Amino acid sequence: MNISKHEQRVLHVLALGGEIHYSRIESSKINEIICYTREGHVLSDCTIAIFKRLKSKKLIRSKNSQPYRITPLGAGSVRSQMMQR
């Protein structure tokens, strides 16, 4: 599966325990998203366009109106990266 560099970065943050919080407008469309890392920092690379691509590829999912998290398919699709801490 072809996954761009920005999508890989978002998936890697989600695989390490991050989550995507969202807000909806009246017509039930998602109008704002914020991607948080495990430590609580905001990832600026996560945009609405990247979010929609990840969701359409079924790499992220929300259960019971909770924040979006990575799916098993997404975890298998993400390439491993060396931690740069």
Automatic annotation (TrEMBL):
A matching Pfam family: YjhX_toxin
InterPro entries to which the protein is assigned, alphabetical: YjhX_toxin (IPR018654)
Protein name stated in the entry: Uncharacterized protein
